[in-house]
Amino acid sequence: MSDQDVLRPAPKGLGAAATAFGMEHVDAVFALLRAVWPIPRFGKTALVTRYDDVREAFLSDDAFAVPYAAKLDVIMGGQPFFLGMGDTPQYRLDTAAMRQVVRREDVTPRLTSAFASRAEALVAQADGRIEVVADLSRRVTFEVLCDYFGVTDPPGQDLKVITTRLFEFQFADPGNDPALRREVDAMAPLLRNHIDGLMAARRHGGVEIDDVLGRALKRGAAGEPGFSDDQIHSALIGFLVGGVPQPPMVAPQALEQLLRRPAALASAQAAARADDDASLAGHVFEALRFDPLAPALMRTTVKDHQIAAGTARATVIKAGTTLLVSFRSAMMDPRRIPSPKVFNPRRLPHEYLHFGYALHTCFGIHINQAVLPLMLKPLLQRQGLRRAPGAEGRLTKRGAFADRLWVEYEA
Ligand code: HEM
Predict the structure, then answer these.
(1) pTM here?
(2) Is 308 a domain residue?
(3) Which atom of ligand 1 lies nearest, measured to the CA of 361?
């Protein structure tokens, strides 16, 4: 399989055209809803659009539960992973265990220097013209993070394809496409067997490697809770499927937004050239606010809950309702985000919800905050960064995924 096969063929037909049209205008629709109908309900589905209500929905995890467990079961073969859990003792134990082996102190310099040097090498080799999604962001992310987790490609297979398909099934398949399910039914057991094989090989190889798998096996051998074989196995698959496909979605989206704004691009380039990584990150995450990971995250209402109690918009969301929590809309809400249409690389941290909020806040948030800007930094440092001529110089998407963006620069 080539990198071309990582994403499934672009959806076609009237439905796909309507979705693409809707996404083009989604910010205008959200703005209208925030003003006149901030908590719309259609049958068994409801949507929260204002910043305060989005935060309330994420905080109210006793009423609005993550809907991920059923599909995670398909991927994991029934072994629970904390992304699918409520706030239970098991959730607390599993996340605390995994924080012992995915450590804050790994971010700098271990991961930052690996991301920075791989990205720089690829930009240098590409000689003045590069495709930002597959040839830069996806390559760097998979190479560095898979090495950090301690997971290789299954023999004759490509982890990029497997994890991206499983990610699509888990997070971007609301219609439950049967063709995707057939692929998942083949790929998920293959990935599980491969991880089992890696764990067995490490155990019998006798070599201690300081990566996430090596650390977890060591703690498991010492009998520490949270590190049974099943827990290590499902955490690794969860990180691979839930985490690694995303940086290649959002890094190109941020660059596309910078390319649309010459003054913001020039200012991001100045930060990159001055090695001011904090300012560079400010530019990248602000750019991403204009095209974040998704329009909303989904929750299942498990008990009646009144959102925005005591206000004119107070609305009871009934048990059984699917709640769409629009973090995209929240990040454009002028009630909390000053001048939201203005590009401002010096916003406050709470104005961003790129990585979710409250209980299920992204487990990889510290990694992402540090490494995403570094993937784009070598491009922004080059002179003459511009879109490639024609259509290939504008970011295209396939379904939920960034697909292609060619840029040129002085080699
Ligand atoms: C830049 C890329 C990424 C973005 C934008 C992102 C975004 C998110 C978001 C929005 C959530 C919350 C989901 C929800 O509440 O429904 C989440 C959760 C999660 N993310 Fe990320 N993520 C990224 C990369 C990663 C990476 C690299 C990892 C690898 C460690 C990772 C691991 C996780 C895990 C394990 C959860 C579940 C946390 C929990 O249930 O407590 N993510 N991510």
Answers:
(1) 0.97
(2) yes
(3) 12
